[in-house]
Amino acid sequence: MAHILVIDDERSIRNTLKEILEYEKFTVDLAEHGVEGLEMYKKNNYDIVLCDIKMPEMDGLEVLEKIFEEEGDAQVIMISGHGNIDNAVEAIKKGAYDFIEKPLDLNRLLITIRNALDKSTLITETKVLKRRVSKAYEMVGDSDAIGQVKAIVEKVAPTDARVLITGSNGTGKELVARSLHENSTRLSGPFIEVNCAAIPSELIESELFGHEKGAFTSAIKQRKGKFEQADGGTIFLDEIGDMSLSAQAKVLRVLQENKITRVGSDKDINVNVRVVAATNKNLREEIEKHHFREDLYHRLSVILIHVPSLNERLEDIPLLADHFNQQICEEYGTPPRKIKDDAIKELQKINWTGNIREFRNVLERLIILCEKEITGKDVVSYAMPISK
Question: Which of 140, 285, 313, 353 has the largest count of CB atoms under 10 Å?
Fold first, then answer.
């Protein structure tokens, strides 16, 4: 149940609030002035603070400011017998959830508290989700190979430079792209991913640039393309080596002019997008075969990042195993498994043709099949290793 702190210099009000709130099954602490209230706030994790404005030693607005200097997600509701518009506006500006005048309307107070708790819950859930998303896209490892990638990302992310990421399937090219976005000045903007290999060539232009109603048979309404959706953020063109030459020409124009034209329209639309592309192909060879435009390659490859295969960074397997062990067991709601040293050694013997993606799948299989610990014998039995 929610934990509430009441800060008020009037004993009768403190006691009345305590009695009512405890009847509603809340846990309540009382403080008779701002200094005491702040000390209690620093020592406890409160969900709601009810704070009077006019108090000796330190007034409520000063208490409000100092509360927000501390860590915590408490919602602060200001109460005052000297209510006026200026006080209310000032309190809300300083971050208060609401302002309630004395004598207190208890029904309104309880509704306000419950609404504030809903907001606090949403804030907490959002922070948890953000941490989970951040962990899900974390580049794990301290080998020299992955360290070089991290170093380049750190330097390049704050810029708007275009990046071309290369590497085999399953190495984590998307993780690099997301890391570039999350550490950039465009973090508050969208991150739009386009799998160029998964979209039929006849639909790729509509997917990227959008279309007008009636542009083709199935275009029953206007549609924004991925470049418009990514305006102010980052567009990630995954497997760009599989894009048709006609679509490549259109992408080249966007990079040159920062403008797109929807299919079926002759109107230019300005877009402000950072382009990050990835491929598992050798684009130099594709250029020689006339499958990829050289001018587009040079536009995309301002910065080149090659993501190493797992076989090139076997020393990262202990960290990767621990990372996925925690992640997978959290998803299943079970305690993490103990991974024995001989299991790590067997995992390091495997030829990981599917890279990180394959490694995660194997570890998930081991977690499902092994109840408490994963041994070297389990890896040999269940991982289905391919001899080098």
Answer: 313
Q: By the 8 A CB rule, do 251 and 204 touch? A: no
SS3 call for 385: coil
Containing structural domain, residue 49: 3-134
pLDDT tens string 174-204: 999 999 999 999 999 999 999 998 888 778 8
* Residues 379 and 366 sit within 8 Å (Cβ to Cβ): yes
The C-alpha atoms of residue 347 and residue 363 are separated, in whole angstroms, by 9
How many Å apart are CA 375 and CA 325, to the nearest integer? 14
| Count of domains forming the chain | 3
pLDDT digits (tens, 9 = 90+) for 62-117: 999 999 888 777 899 999 876 667 778 888 888 899 998 888 888 999 999 999 99
State the Cα–Cα distance between residues 237 and 119, nearest whole angstrom.
Answer: 36
Nearest alpha-carbon partner for 13 in 90, 97, 112, 109? 109
Dist. CA 8–CA 18, nearest whole Å: 11
Within 8 A by CB and 6+ apart from 210, the residues are 222, 223, 224, 225, 227, 228, 260, 262, 263
- Shared domain for 356 and 251, answered yes or no, is no
Q: Are 60 and 81 in contact (CB under 8 A)?
A: no
CA distances 313 to 115, 307, 355, Å, are 50, 10, 10
pLDDT of residue 136: 58
Q: What is the mean pLDDT of residues 191-218?
A: 87
CATH label of the domain that carries residue 343: 1.10.8.60
* Beta strand 268-270 pairing with 259-261: antiparallel
In the numeric block, which tokens belong to residue 17?
Answer: 């609030």
> How far apart, in whole angstroms, are the C-alpha atoms of residue 75 and residue 83?
20
